UniProtKB/TrEMBL annotation:
InterPro entries: CENP-V-like, CENP-V/GFA, Mss4-like_sf. SUPFAM superfamilies: Mss4-like. It comes from Sphingomonas kyeonggiensis. Residues 3-111 form the CENP-V/GFA domain. This is CENP-V/GFA domain-containing protein.
Amino acid sequence: MPFTGSCHCGAIAFVVQEDPPTRAMQCNCSICRRKAPLHHFTTPERFTLQTPIDAVATYRFNHHIIAHHFCPVCGVAPFAEGQGPDGPMVEINLRCADGIDLDALQVQLYDGASR
């Protein structure tokens, strides 16, 4: 069953064509410490952005391999795109996903600050 999500104001919306995840990853790198996302990674083929890409703001830093997308209206960052260890990936911020029980997620800690 697909799951959906959006930024706070709804200007950015997406659908992920897979079952809602039960696990998430929490990173401690410089940007994740500040934004506090709960990450879920998927493939570009499973992700559909329902918003025109030109309505999305993007921030890149460090090696510039991840496009951190955020809403220029409310500032919330519901997803990112880039190159993962296994090729192209889309990162979903599960805090922006509809119907996910965040307290029930099994959260894996990732030491991005040391990378």
